[in-house]
Amino acid sequence: MASLRSFYNYIVKDYLKMGTEIKKLKDLQNTEYGLEKLFSDAEDFLPLLGTDYVELYVGNAKQSAHFYKTAFGFQSEAFAGLETGLTDRVSYVLKQGKIRLVLTTPLDENGPINAHINKHGDGVKVMALWVEDARNAWAETTKRGAKSFMEPTVEKDEFGEVIRSGIYTYGETVHVFVERKNYKGTFLPGYKKWESHYNPEPVGLKFVDHMVGNVGWGEMKTWCDFYAEVMGFAQIISFTDDDISTEFTALMSKVMSNGNGRIKFPINEPAKGKKKSQIEEYLDFYKGAGVQHIAVATDDIVKTVSAMRDRGVEFLYVPEEYYDDLLERVGAIDEDVEILKQHGILIDRDDEGYLLQLFTKPVVDRPTIFFEVIQRKGAQSFGVGNFKALFEAIEREQKSRGTL
Ligand code: FE2
After folding, report:
1. I need a labelling partner for 127 at 20 to 30 A (CA). Which of 141, 214, 278, 337 fits?
2. What is the per-residue pLDDT across 338-392, written as a single tens digit (0 to 9) for each?
3. What single DSSP character describes residue 323?
């Protein structure tokens, strides 16, 4: 699988450089993602190579970094702050597999970072996307109506240059396009390597699978249209409030994906029920639209989740009844149901295979952002059963918070 992936990566990189020379790819019959998706990139005006980094604005980056190292097994990667010449902020970069988390705290009470934290609490500011051409990404998206966050900017140091540009998405969240093909440094110019004697073992997290946005009443269409029209994404799945509701509350969700399937952004909107939707709870506490969860992939969910639990990560509770008719719902699976049940791991299926998922409780004090651990075994999208189970698990938490 690993060699197939690297072969695929090689082909895609080559392909992006070649532009229209698609003929060479005709032999590629059985890549992981399929020829159809690969070819659809031919018309893709915004080719994305993957997630580059996720930046959270937090109240205390030093202590947050310690949490993500200890509990999630991230490794010290890079640092920028007073010691590197910055005067307004400090950023710690953590890495595990291909995932880069950037934790940024302001040193200036009047700046935009402090204003962001005041309003939203700790949360995701930047979902950065790795591109071949950051100037082109900015030009193509702003031309289609995106609001600019950052004009194409060249940053240099002795390791080369990085070009970044950015646009706004929902709420105050942004996408930054990162072009790093001419850079050999640790993270970005201006950062120095962060040497730390404390790097607990990684827990097996590999890459960002998807990031979910919660948006306000009636705004789901606006933002799905944004991903379709401004960024060239396609909708791969849709859940209505009939699919995802209980006696009391409801939500709606659509999943938007880019051409090669590497970037998936589900969008949730509250729906009317007898009581307050969990999406509304998020919007109340985050004070607007924002990132609800970051899903990180593993090759061995039982091992990863066991390690995280041992290190203090709290996961949502899944009732035992969930497992009663599990095999009837999802068919044969490789894992031992008893072990999945012990950990509260959810299983669902789409037409290509199955997937295993588990969700943490919020990682901050406001009931806002949380993480998902996901292992895909063939399935490329999402199943309604897990969506509903997640929804019900959050509803139980809402009840204990008195916000239902
Ligand atoms: Fe998710």
Report:
1. 278
2. 999 999 999 998 888 999 999 999 999 999 999 999 999 999 888 777 778 888 8
3. G
Q: What is the whole-number distance in angstroms between the Cα of residue 1 and the centre of ligand 1?
A: 23
Residues 295/351, Cβ–Cβ less than 8 Å: no
- 68 C-alpha to ligand 1 centroid (Å): 19
CATH of the domain at 178: 3.10.180.10
pLDDT of residue 82: 97
Instruction: Verify that 242 and 363 share a domain, yes or no.
Output: yes
Place of tokens 């075994």: 377
The domain of 185 spans 48-193
State how many domains the chain has.
3
This prediction has a pTM of: 0.88
- Domain match, 247 and 393 both: yes
Model confidence pLDDT, tens digit, residues 206-252: 999 999 999 999 999 999 999 999 999 999 888 877 777 777 777 88
| Pairing label, strands 370-377, 250-257 | unpaired
Ligand 1 centroid distance, CA of 385 (Å): 13
Q: 208 to each of 46, 149, 263, how far by Cα in Å? A: 19, 23, 9
pLDDT digits (tens, 9 = 90+) for 58-86: 999 999 999 999 999 999 999 999 999 99
- The reply to whether 271 and 216 lie within a common domain is yes
Rounded distance from Cα 122 to ligand 1 centre (Å) = 19
